[in-house]
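Journal club prep — side note

Before the paper discussion, L.F. wants everyone to see what a predicted structure for a comparable chain looks like in token form. Sequence:
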Amino acid sequence: MSWLHRFSIRARLTLIFVFAIALILSFTGLALVHLVRNSLANDANNEIQSEMVRTQERFVAATSAQNYQVVLPMHGNVVVQVTNLAGTQIWAASAAIAKAPILAHETVDDASTNGLGVKMVRTPATASTLSEISSGQVGTIFTKRGSGLIFGYVFGQGISHSVGVLMTSLVISFPLLLLMTGGLIWSGVRPLPARSPDGRRRRDRAHGPHGECDAGPTRGVVPVRAGVRLERESRT
């Protein structure tokens, strides 16, 4: 930290305060991004699960087995795709992905609540649709055709896009905030007035050559030797 001594006290105080504020803003930004990501993920999971339950109830309420692909209406930005257990036939799909092929298969995932995970089918036919969905979930569904799988996704601008927008805004706003803070601190800290050479000379004359105070003869007080001489002259 010896390089700090090359700067003035004003500059050092400004640098120290700006560095401390930068650390605080960095931790605040990381905590904010983490909080927003978790909040968006929880909201997306709740919406997907609600849509999957709604689709299950629709198939249960069906009066007969529907041997054709059912186009489901969209609710919000969640889309679903229902397939057979083998993952070879589409039974139903939301309107936004009604023309898409099978997008995913089930896989084992011990971290999920139902033990099932989503494995995307990445082919040229699914590339355009996969670029528009995120946060996939899978569950089992019971229909009059038999047991099947239901996949739920967030359609459109997903969590990654929202978090990216937030991080971009933080990267732009935090340096501007630091710049404004540094300017306010710099203008608020006033430098000490410099001592002029004339002031030093007056101080040296006041203290004398040996550092003793030399106030000079006091006005109205006659020195001792001058008083004796005047008294002798008056007698003569």
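L.F.'s comment for the group: Residues 51-160 form one domain. Keep this in mind when we get to the figures.
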